[in-house]
Design goal:
Structural class: alpha+beta
Helix content: 25-40%
Distance between the termini: 43 Å
Strand content: 15-25%
Bound molecules: adenosine-5'-diphosphate, magnesium ion
CATH topology of the largest domain: Transferase(Phosphotransferase), domain 1
Length: about 250
């Protein structure tokens, strides 16, 4: 494993102070919304490594895109609600923290439900500490950037559809699912990146987002010789969810 990072990102300090990790080793990837750091886990955590997903400052992110995903979410604290509505600096920080808290809660629920999602260990207002998906020598690549083994695609798709259905059964639609947000290890996928996930009971865009998630998946698997009628599958899933059959 590579050397300890020269400078520890400040957002990972709470995890060090809490004794959850003992060092930050290196950056796995700097994504559009966040950077993922490989950390050495404290022995008490169980696994040898963990990942700290550190969100970029809110000002770096695309605010306009957020609204659709937030419909149906309720901010209970009146002061926070006012600050967020006014988009004051405090409001932006609070909004960012809500976003992260939401991702943590969704991942926690889905992991508990048996979905292929990293286990989450802790969250602060800037970062989430979660299970490392990868091997000793390298982090798992995004599905988009990997070469599947011959004949592997059908089983991967089948399991992914089970994950999507199980998420629905737990009132979660990912909302940004694609081959970029699925990490690949031989024979299995792990779904990541849930801050924008919506609850189909309350979010009016959930039906459309489910359709889009399935289309992205269908497009990827079509290139690997496996057909999925995304529209029909989305209709079928939605109908069963509405009837409480999932
Ligand atoms: N638990 C994890 N294990 C290994 N790599 C991860 C993990 N979580 C994130 N990554 C890496 O960090 C990248 C960005 O994470 P992601 O949650 O998709 O955030 P975003 O796309 O919003 O920046 C991923 O594509 C992946 O390469
Ligand atoms: Mg991502």
């Amino acid at each position: 494993m590579p050397q300890v990072a020269a400078d520890t990102p400040p957002a990972t300090e709470p995890f060090l102070e809490e004794g959850l990790i003992t060092s930050v080793l290196h950056t796995i990837k700097s994504g559009k919304e966040a950077s993922a750091y490989l950390c050495r886990a404290h022995r008490s955590l169980g696994p040898r490594y963990a990942v700290a997903k550190v969100y970029h400052e809110r000002s770096d992110r695309n605010f306009n895109n957020d609204t659709m995903y937030q419909e149906g979410r309720e901010i209970l604290n009146a002061r926070t609600k006012r600050a967020v509505a006014k988009k004051t600096e405090l409001g932006r920080a609070a909004q960012g923290a809500l976003w992260i808290d939401h991702e943590f809660e969704v991942m926690s629920a889905l992991h508990y439900a048996g979905c292929d999602v990293p286990e989450v260990f802790a969250a602060t207002e800037q970062a989430i500490l979660m299970e490392y998906i990868g091997a000793e020598d390298a982090a798992a690549p995004q599905l988009q950037h990997t070469q599947l083994a011959p004949g592997e695609a059908p089983a991967l798709l089948e399991r992914l559809l089970w994950d999507i259905e199980t998420a629905m059964a737990n009132n979660v639609v990912h909302g940004d699912l694609s081959a970029f947000n699925a990490l690949y290890r031989p024979g299995r996928l792990t779904i990541i990146d849930f801050p924008q996930a919506v609850d189909p009971r309350f979010n009016p865009h959930a039906r459309r987002l489910l359709g889009r998630d399935l289309q992205n998946i269908a497009r990827y698997f079509a290139r690997h010789g496996v057909a999925l009628d995304a529209g029909r599958h989305a209709d079928w899933l939605w109908r069963r969810w509405e009837r409480g059959e999932l």
